[in-house]
Write a structure and sequence with these properties.
The chain has four helices and eleven strands. With 221 residues, it is α+β, with helices and mostly antiparallel strands. It folds into two domains: 49-73 and 136-218; 79-133, no CATH class. The strands form three sheets. Strands 4-5-6-7-8 form a five-stranded antiparallel sheet. A hairpin with a 2-residue loop joins strand 9 and strand 10. Helix 1 crosses helix 4 and helix 2 packs antiparallel against helix 3 (109-134). It is elongated and about 75 Å long. The two termini are 33 Å apart. The chain binds zinc ion.
C-alpha cells in the first residue's frame, strides 16, 4: 500500500492502518515510536516547500557551531485594526482622564487612580502593536539547547529549553484563545520535559516551524 506519511523519527512509511486520526496518533512499526498524526501531516505539507519557507521566515545554518536558526519577521495584519481601536480607546480614556488634568493643571488623585487600568491597557495595546509591526521571533537550536526570542531588535524575552535527539514535536491546544477559538501551540517533548512555543504565530508559519523543529532535532542539530 502506498502512503505519503513517514515516521518522523526513522523515515519509514506509515500505512493508514497504523494511523488513528481521532486520537492523533501514528504508530511506526519499523522503530516502534509514535508520532502525532497532525505533525506527520504538517511535515508532508511543509516537505514540498522546505526549499522556500512561508513569507517572513528565514533559516540560517551556522556551519562553524553546528547550530541552526529560524527567524520569523512579518508585519501582522491585525495591527491595522488595532491601531485605530487604540487611538479611539486609549486616546479617549487617556485624554479624558489625564489630558484634562494636565490642561487644568490640577491633579485629581481619584481620577488618576480610576485611570490606572486604562493606562495599563494602553501600555499593553501599544506593546502588542509594536510587536505586530516590528517584532521578530528567533528560534535557535544548537546541540540540545534551544532558545526562543520574541521581541523588537534586542529588546524582548528569551526562553530556553533543552532537547534530546529523540524529542518529539507535536501540537496541542494552547490556553490562550484567538477570537474565542483556542489556538494550537507547538510542544517539544523530551525525557521528562515539555516546552511549548509559538502559540500566537499564524497557522502557516506555525506548521512550517513545527516541521522544521522535528527535522532539525531528529538530524541532531
Ligand atoms: Zn519509525
Amino acid at each position: 500500500m502506498n502512503t505519503r506519511y513517514q515516521c518522523l523519527a526513522c523515515g519509514a512509511p506509515i500505512p493508514l492502518d497504523d494511523i488513528n486520526v481521532a486520537t492523533d496518533v501514528a504508530l511506526c512499526r519499523a522503530c516502534g515510536r509514535t508520532s502525532a498524526f497532525s505533525l506527520l501531516q504538517a511535515a508532508v505539507d511543509t516537505a514540498s516547500s522546505m526549499g522556500e519557507p512561508p513569507r517572513g521566515i528565514r533559516i540560517e545554518r551556522d556551519f562553524m557551531g553546528g547550530g541552526t536558526t529560524l527567524t520569523y519577521k512579518r508585519m501582522q495584519p491585525f495591527v491595522w485594526i488595532l491601531i485605530p481601536f487604540t487611538l479611539i480607546w486609549s486616546g479617549g480614556s487617556m485624554g479624558g482622564i489625564y489630558g484634562t488634568q494636565i490642561l487644568k493643571r490640577a491633579f485629581d488623585w481619584k481620577m488618576s487612580l480610576f485611570g490606572l487600568p486604562f493606562l495599563f491597557g494602553t501600555v499593553v495595546l501599544l506593546t502588542v502593536i509594536l510587536l505586530g509591526l516590528f517584532g521578530k521571533r528567533r528560534i535557535t537550536l544548537q546541540h540540545g539547547s534551544g532558545s526562543v526570542f520574541h521581541g523588537i531588535g534586542r529588546l524582548g524575552r528569551t526562553r530556553r529549553f533543552t532537547y534530546s535527539r529523540d524529542a518529539r514535536v507535536s501540537f496541542r491546544k494552547a490556553t490562550m484563545q484567538r477570537n474565542n477559538v483556542p489556538t494550537e501551540e507547538i510542544v517539544v517533548t523530551g525525557a521528562g520535559s515539555t516546552f511549548a512555543l509559538c502559540a500566537t504565530l499564524p497557522d502557516e508559519p506555525k506548521r512550517f516551524v513545527a516541521g522544521w523543529l522535528q527535522r532539525e532535532i531528529a538530524r541532531g542539530s
